[in-house]
Specification:
The chain is an alpha+beta fold. It folds into two domains: 28-175, Sandwich (Jelly Rolls), CATH 2.60.120.280; 185-291, Arc Repressor Mutant, subunit A (Orthogonal Bundle), CATH 1.10.10. 45% of the residues lie in helices and 14% in strands. The protein is built from ten helices and seven strands. The protein has helices at residues 3-6, 133-148, 154-175, 185-201, 208-215, 219-230, 234-252, 257-263, 269-280, 284-304; strands at 28-35, 53-60, 62-67, 70-75, 78-82, 99-106, 126-128. The strands form two sheets. A five-stranded antiparallel β-sheet has the order 1-6-2-5-7, with helices on one face. Strands 3-4 form a two-stranded antiparallel sheet.
Length: 305
């Protein structure tokens, strides 16, 4: 590099940028979360978002977690993509000690992909950001700060930052080489079939034998294949799928706890309460109160400023 180059103070645009988001394809920012280590006490168990996608930028820590039909390893600097409708566990186990930003995006339509998806569903969902991590973290931080402090015109400001973040995320996806190890295609296909069957029937009184009969496969072999791919046995996945849906209903509806227990497949409210408390850390009633009341109080405090 020449000494003259070091003195340059002006950079020119060399290419005309293409319009990534035009017409009705105007992605909208729905919310921004900043999850710090040991601050989220109650994990969101297996769930999905029907009408938006989430981008997670991992700032520190490492862990493994369930997304789609397999367990993925993540570490600081990774970009994690949850396409709309993809079932996943959130990174909220206090033992993982992870910090990340979560950006929720709606109304996204990328040519060749389904609505609110940034990748094909069979593609990788974890992408190392490399040299782009610092700028991407800055974009997330600015969005979170602007919205949390209710700055003037924060929504429009953050909308511009979202476009920058999505553009850089697409660059990261495009530059990542798919170096995943070869997998047994038959086992991979069976793992997807098991997951899809449980996702469609988790409200029903399923048993391992019944799932095996429906899929025409040995229950023992089925359990082995699914556990190796996901880290959960089919019955563990079934339980977590029910609990994840119960969490969604607790924070988004005013249905009674007994109604929710029956809707997600539990025979009795007592058993539901026991399993919910074991896996989430608090009883369903307290979980609802912590989430909903806390949200109301934060809104009220924000309005008083």
């Amino acid at each position: 590099m020449s000494a003259y180059h070091d003195l340059q103070v002006q950079c020119f645009v060399k290419r005309n940028p293409g319009d990534l988001f035009t017409g009705e394809n105007r992605p909208s920012l729905l919310y921004v979360s900043h999850v710090r280590p040991n601050t989220n006490q109650h994990p969101r168990i297996l769930h999905s978002h029907a009408h938006h996608l989430e981008l997670l930028l991992i700032c520190s820590g490492s862990s493994s977690f369930m997304i789609h039909n397999g367990r993925k390893e993540i570490q600081a600097g990774d970009l994690v993509i949850y396409n709309a409708g993809v079932v996943h566990d959130d990174l909220t186990d206090p033992d993982t000690n992870i910090e990340y930003y979560c950006i929720a995006v709606g109304n996204l339509q990328i040519p060749g992909l389904r609505e609110n998806a940034m990748t094909q569903d069979d593609d990788s969902c974890v992408y190392p950001t490399g040299k782009y991590f610092g700028p991407m973290q800055d974009l997330c931080s600015m969005m979170f700060q602007s919205l949390s402090e209710d700055e003037a015109d924060a929504e429009n400001f953050c909308q511009g930052l979202l476009t920058a973040l999505l553009t850089r995320s697409m660059t990261v996806i495009g530059e990542t080489e798919n170096a995943a190890p070869q997998r047994d295609e038959d086992e991979d296909h069976l793992g997807r079939r098991i997951k899809e069957y449980i996702d469609a029937h988790y409200r029903e009184a399923l048993t391992l034998q019944e799932i095996g009969t429906k899929l025409n496969v040995s229950p023992y072999y089925m359990s082995h294949v699914f556990k190796r791919a996901s880290g959960y046995s089919p019955i563990q996945y079934l339980l977590r799928r029910r609990l994840g849906k119960a969490q969604t209903l607790l924070i988004s509806t005013d249905l009674s706890i007994s109604e929710i227990a029956g809707m997600v497949g539990f025979d009795t409210q007592n058993y539901f309460n026991a399993q919910f408390t074991k896996h989430v850390g608090v009883p369903p009633k307290q979980y609802r109160e912590n989430y909903v009341v806390g949200k109301i109080e934060k809104t009220a405090q924000k309005r008083k400023k």
